[in-house]
Structure formats: C-alpha cells, structure tokens
Amino acid sequence: MKDKLNIGIIGLGGRGYGLMDGVILHMDDIEIVGVCDTYKDRAQNAADKVEQVKGNKPFITQDYKELIASSEVEAVIVSSAWTGHIEIIIECMKAGKPVGTEVGGAYSIEECWQLIRAYEETGVPCMLLENCCYGREEMMAMNMVKQGIFGEIVHCSGGYQHDLREEIAFGNENRHYRLQNYIHRNCENYPTHELGPIAQILDINRGNRMVSLVSMASKAKGLNEYIKNKKSDDEALMHTEFAQGDVVTTMIKCARGETIVLTLDTTLPRAYSRGFRVQGTKGMFMEDNMSLFIDGEHNEYDFKWKEQWNNIEAYREKYEHPVWKKFMQDGVKGGHGGMDWLVLRAFFDCVEKNEEMPIDVYDIAAWMAISALSEQSIAMGGQVVAIPDFTNGKWITRKA
C-alpha cells in the first residue's frame, strides 16, 4: 500500500471547501494535487489553503474533465452542485478513478441506470459520502438492531428537517444551487441523510429492497413569507412562485414488509432534526428525544409518560458501535460531530486497500432515485410509483 493517496476535489463551495479544510487537510496520507470549481475564485482559495497547510500547490481548473484526466490524480472527491454528481461520477469511472461523491437526489431514473451500467462496464468503485450513516446514534441503533435488541424491525422513519430559508433565499448572492431547485422542482430533494442509515439497518440491496413509494407535498408558503420579511427589496424573488412544497412526506414499502417514512421540511421555522426512529417487535429507538423503549423494561403505564423512556446514554457502554468506541478513544475530529471524518476515512481506506465500498454504486442509485420517483408521485397526486431494482435481482443474495 502506498504512503500517500493523491486526490482531486471537484466543487469547492461551502461543502467542498469545508470537507477539505476541516477533514482532508488533516489526514497525513492524503495529498490534494488538483482542485476544480466552476468559479475560479473558489478553486484559487482552495489551492491557497492547501499550499498554506500542506506546502504543495495543487493545479487549478474550471473543467472537471481536465482534473479527472490528470495522471497526478488517483482518486476524486465530488462535492459539486446536485445536477452534476452522477455525470461526474460516470466520467471518473470511465477514467479508472475511484470516486467519492457528496449526497443529493437524482433528476431522472435513466441517469441512475447510466451510473449502474458505467460501474458494471468499468468495475471502478464509487462511494456515496453519506456522513449520517456514520452518526453516533445511527450506528448505535444499527448495532442494537444487529444484536436483536428491538426484535424484528417493522418500521423506520427519518427526515431532513432543517431551516434552510436563508440559504435558499440568498442563493443568487451565495452562488448556491438550492434556490433554482426550489423554484422548479417539487420532490423529496435530499433523501439520503435520513434514508442511508435506515437502508443499512433494513439490509437494502443486501437481502431486502425498496419496492414502491407514495409521496405528497404540502403547499409552498414558507419561502414567500421569509422573503417578504427578510428580502423584500428583491423584486424578482418577491414575485417568484416556488414549486417545492414546504413539507414533503414519502412512504416506502420494502420487499420484506417493512415501511419507511421520510420527511423533507426545510422552508418553515423549526429546530434541526433528522427524526431518526427504528421500531421493532421488542422495542424502539428515537433520536429526537434521545431515548429507548425496550419491552419488559419500560412498560410502566402509570401516566408518567416521560418515565416510560430510558435515556440512550444509559446504554452507551453496552451498545456503542465498535467504530465509535475506537473513535472516542482516539479522539473525535472532523465536521458534523465526527461523521465527516469517518465517512471520508472509510472511502480513502477502501481505495488504498482496494476493498469494497461500504456504500456502493447500487446504494447510490437506489437512494438518490427517491428524488426523481417522489417527483413523479407528487405530480400524479400521490400515486404509487414502483422503485426499480438496480441490482437486477442480486439483492437477494448480496451480503452485507
């Protein structure tokens, strides 16, 4: 195994620069040799930061194909706007470059199939950098599920519930892609934060799969109210009709019979929550109140409802996921409470050791497809939409 892995980064906006500055530059075995962004100043700022911290000056380009084609670049991180993710991943695979991609939702089912075909033709690995799969609570819940603490899992729910009104409304000033998406699309546009951990708990693509969904959206009023109060001098936005519903609810049915409910809620005033919940025949895990309910332990129905729950912390020592036990011992680092470090470390380790990606191309297609499918369902008034089997039947025998 080489001492250093030379990488290129495509997309140096808030997320890309944050990953670089907060995580990648602090990994001794990773060298950033190329940076790319549509906006030259972003690429320049990133290159300057790399030189300041690491001492080497990466090359700068505004053409992602030039970065991918470079013989210096051995692997690629994609943190560009949503619309470009799958197209860039495919280019990386065709060039023989392992690729880790930031999250988002697909714009069509066809592009998901293009991704699958590119992987099956090239064999070049790619990984979705879904950091929430490495969240402490999510991994603890998964560990408990695998040990049978909650019995047979029946239902899971989660959400991307995050007040993004300022980010969206000032999208033109900040050169952020969310604004145009909220003007033109109405869908579950950011499904993987909540779906990723649930898919791993339910063995999606590895003994189970998602078979159908129904999605509905509320009216869109939150952004108009925000703009009226905070940005009334913006004549164009004051008269913009947003397509994106304030709250989108998507219900998914799985082959083994479990149900999943996803909630997108980003344009109304609210506290942040991923709404992560796992419910089985012997108990449940609820992230919102950081609590567990285990049958036989918390069944005192004396109307003191708060006492029916037991705080997650009381079970940490027994059920903490081994990855997090080691992480806590070594010292938690990186953004989003350590999740960013863990997901990037997993990707780089798999590239360096030539191992299978834990969140692979079939997961990318299945999870990102929810956006395009929910858009169809909403447009048809909440009709049931079939979810394609991107593994072509291999989900039945694929191992976790």
Automatic annotation (TrEMBL):
Could you tell me which InterPro entries the record lists for this protein? Gfo/Idh/MocA-like_OxRdtase_N, Gfo/Idh/MocA_oxidrdct_glycsds, Glyco_hydro_109_C, NAD(P)-bd_dom_sf
Gene Ontology molecular function: hydrolase activity, acting on glycosyl bonds; nucleotide binding
UniProt keywords (A-Z) are:
Glycosidase, Hydrolase, NAD
* Any Pfam family hit: Glyco_hydro_109_C
* Cited SUPFAM superfamilies: NAD(P)-binding Rossmann-fold domains (SSF51735)
Q: Which positions fall inside the Glycosyl hydrolase 109 C-terminal domain?
A: 139-306
Which cofactors does it use? Answer: NAD(+)
Q: Does the keyword Hydrolase apply?
A: yes
- Asked if the record carries the keyword Hydrolase, the reply is yes
Q: Which Gene3D superfamilies match?
A: Dihydrodipicolinate Reductase, domain 2, NAD(P)-binding Rossmann-like Domain
Domain Gfo/Idh/MocA-like oxidoreductase N-terminal: where? 5-127
Leader peptide range in chain numbering = none
Q: Which family does it belong to?
A: Belongs to the Gfo/Idh/MocA family. Glycosyl hydrolase 109 subfamily.
What PANTHER family does the annotation carry? BCDNA.GH03377, GLYCOSYL HYDROLASE FAMILY 109 PROTEIN
Query: What name is this protein filed under?
Result: Gfo/Idh/MocA family oxidoreductase
Q: Which organism is it from?
A: Zhenhengia yiwuensis
